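Problem 12. The chain below contains 291 residues. Write out its predicted structure in token notation.
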Amino acid sequence: MADFKFEPMRSFIYVNCANEDYRPKLQRWLYKTHIPDSIGQFEPYVTKYAFYPSFPTPPEGERFGYASMQLTEHHWLVSDFDPRLGIKAIAETFPLDVLVWQGNLPASVLTAGAAKEEKESEMEDGDIGTNARQTGADGGGNPFIFCFVPMWWENDLKGKGRNIEDGANYRWNVSIGYPEGVSKEEGDKWLYEEVLPIFMEAPEVTRILESRVKKEINDCVMDHVLEIWFENQSAWYKVAVEATKKLKKPAWAQQDQFPFLKPYHNIICACVADFTMSNNLVNYHGYIPRR
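Solution.
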């Protein structure tokens, strides 16, 4: 890889489950098909590939764009969007159904007429879901949010020195993107001067970390990824929902209550633990069914 640009970074994919009836199907696809497919594609240049299952959706979590399935994390050595990585011996298996299960496309795309047309295209291409995902398949659904950030957090805002023995962490990983027409300067002023002080002052918040999204990698719509840690769901609710009620609604607000951003479009998040058994490069041993 001597001629590749060495660029350590990580990424977050926020996986929602649009309907509880889809959860068994989505989980089966993720563990049976997607993990081995993915490892086969990028093992030479990825050092971590992990699924962090979402804790149950907290009260009012949907208006924060809560991804109820999982947070997927990759650690990259080079950009996955380098055109030289585009030649695949075996195409990734990513059917349109998955985008429906995740809420990126409406269920109507799988009705009889649409399904026939798309399935025929899928047989020709073998990768139609991937193409739809990468071109922002949000016609009637929510965009596929794939955020690249530096490998290491850029800003340590609260809780420096916290260690693993200090207690359990309810880690709220949240990505935000300012609405169209709002400048980075205006958005950052709102974030740093109005929003974050509430979380920094709250005793329920034990840690705050932040990085800017590397928009140049894949033109992601988001601007920041933050992690704000609590002890549990009740502590999250006390701060994220109750304490923020004193915030003034900005002129550009996309909803009446904090976070004032459009769920799943300009804000998306998940609450996860520190640890997962789905550290796939290390722990995955195939889809072995229960007997």
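Discussion. Residues 122-126 have pLDDT under 50 and may be disordered. Students who got a different answer should revisit the alignment rule from Section 12.3.
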